Amino acid sequence: MSAVFWILAALTVFGGLAAVTLKNTVHCALAVTVAFAGLALLFLQLDAQFAGFAQILIYIGAVAILVVFAILLTRGSETPKEGIFSRSWFAGMTIAAGVFAVLGWAVIQSSQVLPHQAEAPSVTVNQIGNALLGRYVLPLEIVALLLTAALVGAVIVAMNEKEESQ
Amino acid sequence: MTPLGGYLLVAALVFAIGLAGALTRRNAILVLIGIELMLNAANLNLIAFWRYGPHPELLTGMMFAVFSIAVAAAEAAVGLGLVISIYRHAHTTDLDEMNRMKG
Fold first, then answer.
1. N or C: which end of chain A has fewer CB within 10 A?
2. C-alpha to C-alpha distance for A28 and B37, rounded to whole angstroms
3. Residue B25 dihedral angles phi and psi, to the nearest 5°
4. pLDDT in tens, B4-36
5. Closest-CA distance of chain A to residue B16, Å
6. Spelled out in words, what is the top-level CATH class assigned to the domain B3-90?
7. What gap in Å lies between CA A74 and CA B27, rounded to an integer?
8. What secondary structure letter does DSSP report for B94?
């Protein structure tokens, strides 16, 4: 385990922790952007350059901006008087801690039999393009259809109701 | 610990943090942020298994992660559109106050 891995892991985990614990919603959006950047760097560390740059483009470039837009459109940055956690926060924390305990136990128990391929795979964009338009062409087309439907659906859902009724 | 075990532990931690955020926060937008963190943790698992597993030249794990990123982007767009629509209707994004199915 290299030092770079631990630094990136700490960046990701602290970004995620800050995103779910900070009071101000805009700060939460910035913290989750840090977590997304840490995950993108972890992808690069895993020799998955294409997925890492796709993560940077889509999450940091699009999803983070979308979240900030939604916060600004909904006055979500105001801290509610009753606190930032819901009434059932204790049950939620218990479930999350239980899930982490089970997952961590499973990983540690199986660490002896996990596969370990030492040499880094050399993947070129050429190979990825051939795979996307060859073996994975049907999923690609379905994702294109899904993105179009999601785009149209999001616009229709968020459209102003008053204009619609006139 | 093997490198793959380290990545799996980090992914489990990020998943648990996202789950805690989705289950405990009051604001609907932060619940969506928690769901995004969970999806990202799953992607980290896929990429880590692709890197350390046999036959990385088949690109299965990485392609799965890339398609998963695209589906997560669609989910984020529709989810935030729904939050904005609910905010217009109920003038709040507080999930504890949204306790009626009928508008």
1. C
2. 12
3. -80, 155
4. 999 999 999 999 999 999 999 988 999 999 999
5. 5
6. mainly alpha
7. 10
8. B
